[in-house]
Design a protein that fits this description.
244 residues, TIM Barrel, 11 helices, 16% strand, binds 2-phosphoglycolic acid
């Protein structure tokens, strides 16, 4: 039985007052039924006072420490209470030229440090329209399975985020999302069937309070990675409730 996860990715948004609003996030959310995570900008991690949800980073360095201006390490995230970290978000892949190999190295560093990486994969519209969706996803996943053991992979969460659905208001239909999730699970099953059966695969891309339930009802969708709608506590709470 895969427990649903709803993770909010604030991206480069928010401030201390938004942090305060989220102190009531879990009112009406069944924490036994859904794991809730907030991934704020790193500078706000320390502003959450005893949250009753989990915290996550938005990225981490694949290195331990040293002269790497602007980067943040796994140990730093842990010191500020993080249990999760997003890895390989398409915005990081694009804005910071993160390759599949680098994403795998970051995922490995997270696992070795005791953080759960939420590893993002997903195609552009051009890739989908060219009929290359499965090959593209396979390449992103294969970069993980060459670097991680099955046991390490079992300590990760995958997020399927079609780039054309991120921040656009265009959500993948439940069928499109389910098909991609089933492909991802099937592809990982070639590496390890047991890990594939148990790994949580989240959908991300314009999930809102009014479409979450239908998406989360799909057989291979185990929750969501939420951008824009995670900045409004009432909307985000509804999404958490839809998963639980
Ligand atoms: P969105 O972002 O919900 O605003 O589309 C999702 C994400 O990028 O994680």
């Amino acid at each position: 039985m895969r427990k649903p996860i709803v993770a909010g990715n604030w991206k480069m948004n928010g401030n201390r007052s938004l942090v305060s609003e989220f102190s009531s996030l879990m009112h009406g959310v069944d924490a036994d039924a859904v794991d809730v995570i907030i991934c704020p900008p790193a500078c706000f991690l320390g502003s959450f006072v005893a949250p009753d949800f989990a915290l996550g980073g938005q990225t981490l360095s694949e290195l331990d420490n040293g002269a790497h201006t602007g980067d943040i390490s796994a140990e730093m995230l842990k010191e500020f209470g993080c249990r999760y970290v997003i890895v390989g978000h398409s915005e990081r892949r694009e804005d910071h030229c993160e390759s599949n190999a680098l994403v795998a190295a970051k995922a490995l560093k997270a696992i070795e440090s005791g953080l759960v990486p939420i590893i993002c994969v997903g195609e552009s519209l051009a890739t989908r329209e060219a009929g290359e969706l499965e090959g593209f996803l396979a390449a992103q996943l294969d970069a993980l399975t060459v670097s991680l053991t099955a046991e390490q992979l079992s300590k990760t969460v995958i997020a399927y985020e079609p780039i054309w659905a991120i921040g656009t208001g265009v959500t993948a239909s439940p069928e499109q999302a389910q098909d991609a999730h089933a492909f991802i699970r099937g592809h990982l099953a070639k590496f390890d069937a047991n890990v594939a059966a148990n790994i949580q695969i989240l959908y991300g891309g314009s999930v809102k309070a009014d479409n979450a339930e239908e998406l989360f009802a799909q057989a291979d969708i185990d929750g969501g990675l939420i951008g824009g709608a995670s900045l409004k506590v009432d909307d985000f709470r509804k999404i958490c409730q839809a998963a639980g």
